[in-house]
């Protein structure tokens, strides 16, 4: 049975509005991979006399999507600040997928707040899982938020508390934990703030060795051993 081939993602670049307004968490480049969204963009661009779409190409690579180059419908769809544009849809999907206790915080960031109030009492294992759920591909218009939001909440937490979060998280959380401990947020800390007990350190190194080998050298250099690995007693 013949199936209609899935269209190639559209690679969208930066977006400059006439008034210079920007969404603070919009990435420089992102992908549109949903077939319906691809079709909407291409249809809108066909309506623009300035930039007719060549139907022989499925992939559109643009580094600068300036307002004067597009018709009103394409402008609405691609504008990161348009509440019913495609970037807003991507952010809304990311918010809906967030853990319940983090959804209000995620919604504030998606709406364009730069420093919303951090939620209280969220287990660190949940934050690691939230970060670990981010896929490298496809990188839609919410990927920058998906990286920033959990990392912001983890950034100021002492290494000893982070280590307990590593012990208590799930597989997705280990993925997120490896990403965080290998990131600039952790590796730029003073050496005394990078001491991690052996149990958590071994979990991180084991996961990196099996699933994120590119991060392993960084972790081996940056995860300093704690003087002792205290086991919490009830």
- Distance N to C terminus: 61 Å
| Average pLDDT score | 86
The helical percent reads: 40-55%
How much of the sequence is in beta strands?
A: 5-15%
Total DSSP helices: 11
Shape: elongated
Q: Kindly report the spatial arrangement of strands forming the biggest sheet.
A: 1-3
The number of distinct β-strands equals 6
> Helix and strand succession?
EEEHEHHHHHHHHEHHE
The low-pLDDT segments are 53-64, 229-234
Brief digest:
The protein has helices spanning 35-46, 72-78, 86-97, 103-110, 124-132, 143-155, 159-168, 171-181, 184-187, 198-211, 216-222, and strands at 10-12, 14-16, 30-32, 64-66, 195-196, 224-225.
Could you explain the architecture of this structure?
There is one protein chain. The protein has 234 residues and is mainly alpha-helical. It has eleven helices and six strands. Strands 1-3 form a two-stranded antiparallel ribbon. A two-stranded parallel sheet has the order 2-4. Strands 5-6 form a two-stranded parallel sheet. Helix 5 (124-132) packs antiparallel against helix 6 (143-155), helix 5 packs across helix 8 (171-181) and helix 8 crosses helix 10 (198-211). The chain is elongated and about 65 Å long. It starts with 9 loop residues before the first strand and ends in a 9-residue tail after the last strand.
């Amino acid at each position: 049975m013949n199936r209609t081939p899935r269209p190639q993602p559209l690679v969208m670049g930066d977006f400059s509005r006439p008034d210079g307004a920007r969404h603070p968490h919009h990435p420089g480049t992102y992908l549109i991979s949903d077939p319906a969204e691809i079709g909407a963009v291409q249809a809108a661009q066909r309506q623009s006399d300035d930039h007719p779409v060549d139907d022989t190409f499925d992939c559109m690579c643009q580094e600068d999507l300036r307002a004067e180059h597009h018709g009103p419908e394409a402008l609405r769809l691609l504008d990161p600040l348009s509440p019913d544009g495609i970037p807003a849809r991507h952010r809304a999907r990311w918010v809906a997928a967030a853990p319940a206790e983090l959804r209000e915080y995620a919604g504030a960031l998606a709406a364009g707040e730069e420093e919303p109030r951090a939620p209280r009492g969220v287990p660190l294992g949940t934050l690691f899982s939230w970060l670990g759920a981010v896929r490298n591909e496809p990188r839609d218009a919410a990927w920058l938020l998906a990286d920033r939001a959990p990392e912001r909440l983890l950034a100021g937490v002492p290494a000893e508390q982070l280590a307990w979060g590593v012990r208590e998280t799930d597989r997705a959380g280990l993925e997120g934990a490896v990403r965080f401990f290998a990131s600039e947020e952790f590796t730029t800390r003073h050496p005394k703030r990078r001491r991690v007990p052996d149990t958590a350190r071994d979990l991180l190194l084991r996961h990196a060795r099996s699933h994120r080998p590119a991060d392993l050298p960084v972790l081996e250099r940056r995860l300093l051993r704690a003087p002792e690995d205290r086991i919490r007693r009830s």
